[in-house]
Amino acid sequence: MSPDDKTENEAMRADVAQLDADLACEELARLAKMIDEANTAYHTHDAPLMSDAEFDRLRLRNAAIEARFPDLIRADSPQNKIGASPAEGFGKITHKRRMLSLANAFSDEDVADFVSGVRRFLNLTSEDSLAFTAEPKIDGLSLSLRYERQRLVYAATRGDGVIGEDVTANARTVADIPQHLSDAPDILELRGEIYMSHSDFSALNARQSAIGGKVFANPRNAAAGSLRQLDPEITRARPLRFFAYAWGETSRALALTQTDAIARIKALGFPTNPLFRRCPNLEAMLAAYAGIASHRATLGYDIDGVVYKLDDLALQERLGLRSTTPRWAIAHKFPAELAWTVLDGIDIQVGRTGALSPVARLRPVTVGGVVVSNATLHNEDYISGRDSRGVPIRDGRDIRIGDWVEVYRAGDVIPKIRDVDLTRRPVDAAPFQMLAHCPECGSPAIREAGDSVRRCTGGMSCPAQAVERLKHFVSRSAFDIEGLGAKQVESFWRDGWISTPKDIFTLRARFGPGQPRQLKNREGWGAKSADKLFDAIDEKRRIPLSRVIFALGLRHVGETTAALLASHYGTWDSLRDSLRAARDPESAAFADLIAIDGVGPVMAQSLIAGFDVEAAQIDALAECLEILAPEARASESPVAGKTLVFTGTLERMSRAEAKARAEALGAKVAGSVSAKTDLLIAGPGAGSKAAKAADLGIEVIDEDQWLALIGAA
User: What global pTM score does this model have?
Assistant: First the structure.
């Protein structure tokens, strides 16, 4: 990490430390939207919105806010998602074992924290030996290859980590991928990265340009687009390569260590990276990073960091997984890339919650192989040269239209403006003035005390907010209605066909067969496509409770929170009635709401207010649906379905490992004791939680009894 990167990260953390809960909620919502859009563009459409470095910074900021405000973690938190859903046009394959992403490190200190965190989780001291491996992080497309009885049976992209695209026919055309193995386990899922070399990329773009075909922005996009062709012969004509670095399901273990497993994979005939090495300690890991970085320009293919993995596979198993990343691995990313260009304009976009967001329109510039023409400007404070506390940033230099600005790419998300060159500022450049009214509806745009953004006060009368909320309602994690995407929503809303979610479920009655105006007669539609959409809408009349909650688009409520609420209340009627009863903060219903692990007072008030303000729309929508209660989680574990609380100091495993073990066995782990708590596990130093459990008559056991209960004594 460069000194500038380190300073920026320190400034980011300092800024996060000053956020209050309301600002944190707004920021998490904005980050979730930006990261989700970037993930979809990158993984599904092979068309990045921003650089890898910028994407990483957004995720880093999101993680920092979540760490400071754990009660505000959203159900659609980027930390809980992997990649993006599979693209249309391909068959779907469910991975036998999930394909995970990696947590990121951006500095030597981050790597040291990762190593010390692994030691804490495993209760190891600094004297205990602990080896890791290091290898280049290939900037390509993740691929899983399944072999049965030594024959390749299918290949699948990562997709969302659970379901990927079936690209078997295309993978068979890649020379680096063996069709048959010898002396391999009967079942072997081999995982790695599809990529394209720099020279092959340049030659491909030259051929594409000559025939008027698509010219790719970078080798990663070219590799991903080439593998995801519906015609395998197109893939065959593209120069794709493959590096193997991991595995999924196997019928027998490959080895006892990561090092030996990679050697075994190489012996089976798969290409593995020659820069892979074993590192006995932290110093060796950082030396490997420096060595790989020094070779970066001469490798002939793109890498964006170094991946460290715990070498001992038994310890990997103990560490286990988070929701989307393993605890035993991390990616040490290379510094971001920079470029200078001219700021041609500043546009204001209005989001679903009414937030006015400034976006820089740039004179197009290539940064790290990607053409950048827009960048985020965060908010009016950032443009003026200060943070949310009024502290100067960029030494107080403001940003004006016409300025030469330094563009910073830090991942594959929207780039941002890092600095401004005052020596090249036009003499007539004027300070930026934030709009006082919404550019979409003209309503006053108010900035409340303590808020970093202005918000349109027009509510659902504002077209931008109305359309964005409808887009959210039909998004992939919400109702996910096939054939009804963002473009269709905008078109139907513009023509007055839909204005509320309920209107979607009356489209057939209003614009189907026998009606004066029919969908089949609209431009771009026909009888078959109209019927298909109506049928797709009807299919979503039966829908899980958690999806309905998320689809409502209430502030601070993401996928995770929606799932928590669905699990807690069980039915739509119970949820609705309980939230309306919880209007009184002294009520039992309110106490029950904030006792849910992950729901704090701010989120609770947002839920209650949302159900109040949107009561008529919500009730009208519910009348159109059959809302399904969540299925009970089947498990033979003695703690399955029970709510547990850990308190005090655990001596034989860390609190994180205990929580992970309990959740893996089907238990719910809460942060506080309530009447719904089934079991309290108390270590030395247990205080008020143990006392409250005793008052409520809740069973209390110690760590030894806990381990015996789950069969781990």
Answer: 0.50
